[in-house]
Amino acid sequence: MDEKTMVNDILGCVKSDLTAYQTAITECENMRFKTNSSTNKEQ
């Protein structure tokens, strides 16, 4: 396997991991917003 292929493979994996983190962060932010919104409505 040549160096270019290995680097492209590593970068592809890093990009995939970053996308997964971004999705998880967005979902957590949405959950917090929904929780805060419903808590504020009850008050």
Structural class: mainly alpha
Number of helices: 1
Mean pLDDT: 86
Beta content comes to: under 5%
Main sheet record:
none
- Unreliable runs: none
Q: In one word, what is the shape?
A: rod-shaped
Helix content: over 70%
Gyration radius, in Å = 19 Å
Give the termini distance in whole angstroms: 62 Å
How many DSSP-defined strands?
A: 0
| Order of helical and strand elements | H
Note down, in words, how this protein is organized:
The chain starts with a helix and ends with a helix. The protein is built from one helix and no strands. It has one helix at 3-42. The chain has 43 residues and is mainly α. The mean pLDDT is 86.
Give the gist of this structure:
This protein is mostly helical and about 45 residues long. Helix content is about 95%, strand content about 0%.
Write the layout of secondary structure elements.
Layout: H1 3-42
Highlighted features:
43 residues, 1 helix, 93% helix
